[in-house]
Amino acid sequence: MGTLIERPTASVIPLYAQHLIGVAPLCRLVVPHPRASSVHALLSWLEGAWQIKDLASTNGTFLDGARAQAGVWTRLWEGVSLGFGGPEGAYTLISAAPPEALAILQRHERVERIAGGLIPLPDGDQPEVIVLQDAQGDWVIERQAQVELAQDGQLVQTRGQTWRLSLPGAAHQTLRDAHGPTTLSSLVLRFDVSFDGDRVTLTLLFPDGAERRLEPRAHHALLLSLARRWAQDLASGAAPLDAGWVSMDDLARELPASERLAAWGRINLHVYKARRELAELGVESASALIERRRGQELLRFGGARAQIHDADGVLDGNLLV
Questions:
Q1: Which pLDDT tens digit goes with each residue over 88-141?
Q2: β pairing state of 188-193 and 305-310
Q3: How far apart are CA 119 and CA 128, in angstroms?
Q4: Element (H, E) at 299
């Protein structure tokens, strides 16, 4: 991610998607220069580069000693020195890499970083909230069965903790595996179901003909259930945009009796683990593996193609919409 270094302390400052700079405590970068303004400048990731805009400060923003035009975005370059209130370059941009999506625990140093398009809060073991980019490229917050749009700088509450989101305008993480970059839409997910239906084996079929069989996981049963609904709806003549949606309550009825008491939490955990599994294998846009419909308690399999091999034969669903 983008990084500044402060001279002479050599302090390293990671850059969020938007970085407000000035003397005021509300700024993410509080500068000690006596001639800096309360709210001096804004540093942001825009159009694939770090850019800075002087916010009509009294004494100016300087790039390599030259004063930048106030109110105008100026593109930065790696190695440029930045001065606030004077030409002395107190900061240097040592990395112009894109920003990461982050969740910062307020009043603590703890940071949760994006992994495969997902930020689980408060942690990945028992996530109460998932922050991710959906199939449309929007950042959203999933909490239980509810989905809402997320905004950069938004505060999110989980178990008495407050997190501030730092969200770039687009996903910048590129995940790779042994087969090179692999998008979700290029994969086929093959489900092999035992004759009695008790065992599910999931195999990924890559565009180059390679296969990878995954270790059995409890969340594979959820994926199978969603993929089967999709394919059956299409076979019944449903439109692709309407196919495969199922309510959380209906899914809960399919869980073992021992898990039904906390059914929604269990389903959300399976959804998170299914997405994370593919992301860790290098699949881009893995968060679109399971879609949620905003404002409703519905979800479905999405973004890939599924083949289901069971005692009834082969059910093939093209899951591209």
A1: 888 999 999 888 888 888 776 567 776 667 888 888 888 888 888 776 677 888
A2: parallel
A3: 11
A4: strand 298-301
- Between the CA of residue 255 and those of 219, 264, 266, 291, 310, what are the distances in Å? 11, 10, 9, 20, 20
Instruction: Answer yes or no: is pLDDT of 310 > 70.
Output: yes
pLDDT at position 178, please?
Answer: 42
| Six-digit token string for 15 | 């850059």
Which tokens sit at 163? Answer: 């997190």
Structure tokens at 292: 């949620």
| Local structure of residue 180 (DSSP, 8 states) | B
CA atoms within 13 A on the CB side of 184: 26
Q: In what order do the strands lie in the sheet with 129-133?
A: 118-121, 129-133, 139-143, 146-149
Question: Sign of the CA dihedral 231, 237, 243, 246?
Answer: negative
CA 19 to chain centre: 20
| Phi and psi at residue 62, to the nearest 5° | -125, 135
The three-state secondary structure class of 190 is strand
- Which tokens hold the place of 97? 């890499």
Bridge partners of 50, per DSSP, are: 45
What's the distance, CA 179 to chain centroid? 22
Q: Are 164 and 281 in contact (CB under 8 A)?
A: no
Give the C-alpha separation, 286 to 133, whole Å: 10
Phi, psi (deg, nearest 5) at residue 203: -125, 135
Q: Note the pLDDT tens digit of each residue in 8-53.
A: 788 888 888 888 899 988 788 899 888 999 989 999 888 788 999 9
Q: What pLDDT score does 172 carry?
A: 36
- Cβ atoms within 10 Å of 229's Cβ, excluding its own: 20
Instruction: Give dist(CA 175, CA 316) in Å, integer.
Output: 27
Q: 41: helix, coil or strand?
A: strand
Helices (H) and strands (E) in the chain, counts: 3, 29
pTM (two decimals)? 0.54
